[in-house]
Amino acid sequence: MNGDDAMNEPLGPPDASAVPRFAGPATFARLPRPDQVPRADVAVLGLPFDSGVCYRPGARFGPEAVRAGSKLLRPYHPALDAAPWSRLQVADAGDVTVNPFDTEEAIDAVHSEATELYTRAEHLVAIGGDHIIVLPLPRVAHARYRPVALVHFDPHLDIVGADVVEVSPAYEHAQLTALAAVDVVYELLGLFALRAK
Q1: If the chain, 197 residues long, is cut into consecutive pieces of 10 residues, what is the mean pLDDT of each piece?
Q2: What was the pLDDT predicted at 8?
Q3: pLDDT at position 92
Q4: Which terminus of the chain is more exposed, N or C, with fewer CB under 10 A?
């Protein structure tokens, strides 16, 4: 390996034999932050927001919980014979600071942060949060990539048709997918209702 190859090799998580998994950075899979790497192929962005739901708040803790669980991810998957952190530079960009009392302001904050993050990373993986991410993130991706596809997994189809949007509360969680579909016009819109028995 020459010096240029070593410079371009992605920086992965710290060696678990040197830094135990319960220690080290509190980032996704213990991966570096964007300021620790010269470039990022993929940025992970947390969206700790759940004020868009009308019942069962708690999704605001999703990014923190996913990061905590991801500490157990290994840099190599023997069954798949894959080492994802060695192929792409993945960096954890932290959480968007959102106002839990103002949904429109939160949508603007997510839109602004995602737009800025796309200047430093080629792709974005968002960890929510509630359904609000279905609105600003596709708008940003559409502006960058066109066309956009959305695959939405949920225990039930939280979707209110676009014809109801004007009479329901602003940015109610069940209408965000419809708003985004009207706004962005998806090339592909896949909705999957998953429910464990």
Answers
A1: 60 90 89 94 93 79 93 90 92 94 89 94 89 80 79 57 46 54 49 48
A2: 76
A3: 97
A4: C
**d(C-alpha 16, C-alpha 139), whole Å:** 38
* Interatomic CA distance for residues 149 and 175, integer angstroms: 18
CATH number of the domain within which 140 lies: 3.40.800.10
Question: How many other C-beta atoms lie within 10 A of the C-beta of residue 47?
Answer: 26
- Please give the structure tokens belonging to residue 33: 């932050």
**Residue 176 structural domain:** 3-193
Both structure tokens of 38:
């010269």
CB atoms within 10 A of CB 7: 8
pLDDT of residue 166: 45
Q: Which residue from 132, 113, 121, 124 is spatially nearest to 38, judged by alpha carbons?
A: 121
Evaluated on CA atoms 59, 183, 112, 35, the torsion sign reads positive
How many CB atoms sit inside 10 A of residue 140's CB?
21
Collect all residues with Cβ–Cβ distance below 8 Å to 59 and sequence separation of at least 6: 49, 50, 53, 128, 129, 130
- Put simply, whether the predicted model's pTM sits higher than 0.70 gets the answer yes
Supply the Cα-derived Rg of the chain in whole angstroms: 18
Look at residue 24 in the predicted model and tell me its pLDDT: 81
Domain count, the chain: 1
CB atoms within 10 A of CB 11: 15
User: In whole angstroms, what is the distance from residue 111 CA to residue 119 CA?
Assistant: 13
